[in-house]
Amino acid sequence: MKAKIIIISIISLFIISCNNNHTHEPATETHEHSKIQFTTYNSDFELFAEADNFLIGHTANILAHFSTLPDFNALESGSITVRLVVNGKETKQTLEEPSRKGIYSFNIKPETSGNGKLIFDIKNKKGVFQVLVPEIIVYSTSKEVHDVAHNEDVSNTNTVSFTKEQSWKVNFSTEKPRTEPFGKVIKTIAQIQSAINDETFITANTNGIIQLYDNSILEGKDIAKGQYLFSISGTKLADNNSSVRFLEAQNNYKKAKADYKRMKELAKDKIISEKELLNAKNEFENSKIIFNNLNDNFSASGQKINSTTNGFVKQIFVKNGQYVEAGQNLLLISQNKNLLLRADIQQKNVADLASIKSAVIRQLQSNKSYTLDELNGKILSYGRSTNSDNYLIPISLQIDNNKSFIPGGFVELYLQTQSNMQALTLPNSSFLEQQGNFFVYVQINPELFEKRQVIIGATDGIKTEIISGIKASERVVSKGAIFVKLAQGAAALDPHSGHVH
Question: Which CATH number is correct for 184-195+337-418, 3.90.1150.10, 2.40.50.140, 1.10.1040.10, 2.40.30.170?
């Protein structure tokens, strides 16, 4: 009984060993299991493929992963034709739909050996596209394939596998560092204020008691131009009573109108002189002007207050039933279209003020950053002197409000100076910090990344200067680096984790 158990255990181990090695054929057939990988980009797609080495007369599988650019999402639908062109001879296959989202599995049997190319013709709802892989080798013997496979050696030192299926599920992208002018950056805090020409005060034109139109006149409430807000009543005032003046002007207007109408009839019969008619007309027109002016702003109950602009109620200065005087501010309406950023910088940066060309504004509550151009902004002025109360240099910028800035709040301001010095830069989202050191994930291929330490320089709030650690030709994870880090941690816990397409 014990012997049987031992035999079964040995057979089980042998099966497991065979499955792990993935080797079921003699050495002369290793071309069926040796793989090549190729990656290519154009303006619309990233192609990452794993394929059998191409051997004349043998079918090679091409497992192609297509990601749309610039979002790096999986290509979900569309017809793709692959063409293998070698020495003018073409072999092709067409797949109408992916086998899984983003993945197409082709089978190609080369008819001739030599150097060639792979062409992928893509047709979907957005149009017709083409992806080219320019350097493909079709071997003539199994020995050539075996020798190539034997010489291939990819280092896995400090690398992490992050599959396309994983990257398609998160906000992920890669890009090469940019070489661009990168000058000195002055970082400071700026307060958000409403622009001077963006606010309007509503004032009282007479003395009286304030009466709100309704309970909807509240701070933050949207207001339309011409909207009735409240009235000022002077009916209980003994002196300078607006209601009395309105009724007096109304009576004078009615009397002058009737007198002028009667005078015109008398003038037809030459009963009155031309001078008397002219005096009656003048009296009528003067009383009409006075009455119309009061009628536009007053009623028998007092002054009518209407909004003179569109916007929202920023501040209310009075309460219902309060006594107000002529010229007193009642309401502040803000259009909230333009905003002013006021900041102070240290005197050591005074020499750089004239060379400031742009800025980046970062919101503290959301960590979102905007360039000055994105907000249609401009630098208005900077101080030329200090005073005894403040030894810092003031600077003012104007931006359009994209509905995410609140007057009175604060933002981080990165002032960028003009420079002719070229620097290598990456988006700030590329970097991970560990104990004061900064790392990025450099792409070995679209499913394998190397964690690498970099030395960084200044940041402008959106991108950061790279002093050393990567080359301009290398591709780096620019979005989703934290997910790659988590995948690396998961692989450390489970060294056998991975995937099979």
Answer: 2.40.30.170
